[in-house]
Amino acid sequence: MLPFTVDSPRNAGTIGTTPYLERAVRTCSLCNAQSPDGTDICRQCGADLAQHSETAVALATLRANPRVRRIRVIVAHDACPACRKAEKDHSKDEAPGLPVPGCSSPSGCRCWYEPALSEIYP
Length: 122
Known about the structure:
Radius of gyration: 15 Å
Helix content: 10-25%
Shape: flat
Number of helices: 3
Distance between the termini: 51 Å
Number of strands: 8
Structural class: alpha+beta
Number of domains: 2
Low-confidence stretches: 1-22
Strand content: 15-25%
Order of helices and strands: EEEEEHHEHEE
């Protein structure tokens, strides 16, 4: 049994007593269903979120872009220690997946990627 309920996978439900969309979630890039950070498989379409979450797709896109030389992990102002440790410029191959493993934020992982470009204009 999952620790949350969802009436509509896009914008309803709760996790405990917290409204579903006020918590950090992983969004499936195939069906747009949202699942809590700790979920590895999309509960709606069964996709592997390590490959098909929006953050995984964003990371793959940044890695494939020849103008991106490094990938920065940006964190929220009240980030947990695990996220603070990940907050830096990473080589393309070493950028961690999101959510950051070991994230202990009660709101879930709120990190995101930012590209460091080698050139700005074409």
